[in-house]
Fold this sequence. Notes:
Chain B: It comes from Halanaerobium congolense. Chain B: Belongs to the ABC transporter superfamily. Ycf16 family. Chain B: Keywords: ATP-binding, Nucleotide-binding. Chain B: This is Iron-regulated ABC transporter ATPase subunit SufC. Chain B: GO terms for molecular function: ATP binding; ATP hydrolysis activity. The structure holds two protein chains of two kinds. Chain A contains three helices and 19 strands. The longest helix of chain A is centred in the C-terminal third of the chain and has 14 residues, at about 300-310. Chain A is mainly beta. Chain A has helices at about 5-15, 285-290, 300-310, and strands at about 25-30, 35-40, 45-50, 55-60, 70-75, 80-95, 100-105, 110-125, 130-135, 145-155, 160-165, 170-180, 185-195, 200-210, 215-225, 230-240, 245-255, 260-265, 275-280. Chain B is built from ten helices and ten strands. In chain B, the strands form two sheets. Chain B has a six-stranded mixed beta sheet with strand order 6-7-8-3-9-10, with helices on both faces. In chain B, strands 2-1-4-5 form a four-stranded antiparallel beta sheet, covered by helices on one side. In chain B, β4 and β5 (about 70) form a beta hairpin. The longest helix of chain B is centred in the last third of the chain and has 16 residues, at about 175-190. Chain B is globular, with a radius of gyration of 18 Å. The complex binds adenosine-5'-diphosphate and magnesium ion. Adenosine-5'-diphosphate binds next to β2 and α1 of chain B.
Amino acid sequence: MNDYEMMINAYKDAGGDDIFADSEVAHLVLERDKILGMHAVEGLEVEADKISEDTVKVKVLVKAGYQIKNPVHMCFGVLPKEGRQKIDMNVEVQKNAKVEVVADCVFPNAVKVEHIMDAVINIDDGGNYIYKEHHFHGDNGGVEVIAKSDINVEANGKLVTKFDLLEGRVGKIDFDYKANIAEHGTVEMLARISGQKNDLIKIREAAHLNGESARGILDSKIALKDQAEAEIYNELTADAAEAMGHVDCTEIIKDQAIARAIPIVDVRHPEAKVTHEAAIGSVDSTQLQTLMSRGLDEEEASDVIIQGLLND
Amino acid sequence: MSKLLEVKNLHLKIEDTEILKGIEFSLEKGEVFALIGPNGCGKSTLAYTLMGINKYHPQKGEMYFKGEKINDLKITERAKKGITLAWQEPARYQGVTVREFLALGLKSKGEEVTEEKLRDALNKVAINPYQYLNRFVDKSLSGGERKRIELASLILMHPELIILDEPDSGVDVVALNNIAEMINYFKESGSGILLITHSEEMLKYADQAALVCEGEIIRQGNPADISEYFKSFCYPCAKEEECETEVAS
Ligand SMILES: Nc1ncnc2c1ncn2[C@@H]1O[C@H](COP(=O)(O)OP(=O)(O)O)[C@@H](O)[C@H]1O
Ligand SMILES: [Mg+2]
């Protein structure tokens, strides 16, 4: 089996759809600094260049007015036990263009793997970018993900990110996302993560609603067990009329897990409004005991509740 | 033959406060036993104690289900024997669909989950399966919808003893009629029902009734007699002189 086949297999094992032979679907496959597959469609440009050892520069451009029909599939990963992958990502969604990207990051054999993503994302007027990122890190806990995003959403633009890591180990993740939103623009950042053993989760998200009627949602749902730890820092600022935002952080902990939530809400306009909700605790006992009164044992009941929360 | 449920001299204290003070009653298969009484008299506490909810473990007295003492059984064990409780305020679950929620009762009994069974149960509680099966059992449901979905899950679980804690509270008239129908349905299918209620209307569906006041059953008998309570929201008892229970309306 060659590298490409191995990557595609790892991707499929992690639940990815097999779309790589479909000429209507754009894709990009990177294993460490190797560009294994790349395909673009009309209205969309994808470029990838190795710029140094372990580092690939990726540029995605959606041209003005193009609504890309099928989600673009990206598959990133490191196959060996050890390795490093750094991606410098530049995304440009031009005026009134629309695209959805589904990224699968797979590190099935990781013992000591580093995955670094540095992204600069610009959504032009009326542009729309949906980014769904699914991670699979294997069972060794040997992955460290360091992701940084600098996001700019112009007037009427929209950005939605949805990150999930629900199976296997997390290892260590450290996110730092910053977004500036202009008038009538929207940002939604969702994270769903299940941590165990000595997994470490650190998320720092900041969205600045700078324009009138800008909207922002920062929503994290985290389930932790064993000695896992999470720290979620959500910052939402609003300084224009009718700007509206909501921060929601729910963390369910078991065993010796530790969860921290630090919501910062900063409003500097009397007609702006930002709300926040943070709940950290064990599984709610009424929810749990209701399911137990239907015949589920405690473990099964708790799984139903946590899975529901993470799928929400 | 032993009774479906038999409760003897049940006492429950939580943090030095006596909440149940010697509750005693029994109920047969296919029978509806109604419990009424003022707010705070201990009706929900009795329901939790029968189900085995955390912290509701009696210090004194016995609970028998089909002749077997259940005091020391855990919630799951009681449920597997055929006892269940529909909470006064049913829990809500983020991200769990009505379909998944209903399927749980079937799965725990090792029964096959089919679309038809799920649809059938929802139709019985006058909930349109096509509109609701994929909805979440979360805050987006109204109180009445949530309560009816709870009843639908009981239909699928088919328990022998159903404890309904104020199934009629917080629901509209349409839902109320439906809940009354469901009580009859459970009864006809052979389940015994402990019906905790605040409504005189619901008493009509009971075979026996008891009035609870301050953790004690102060009167027990046929529902028509017990429903006199609703005239003044009090039934004069031996403790009249020192009574501190507020007469609600
Ligand atoms: N877990 C608890 N801890 C302390 N007091 C409780 C607890 N549960 C119930 N009680 C008290 O017991 C009394 C009976 O409550 P409850 O059973 O809910 O009444 P009802 O359902 O009849 O309205 C109330 O005074 C209530 O405050
Ligand atoms: Mg009550």
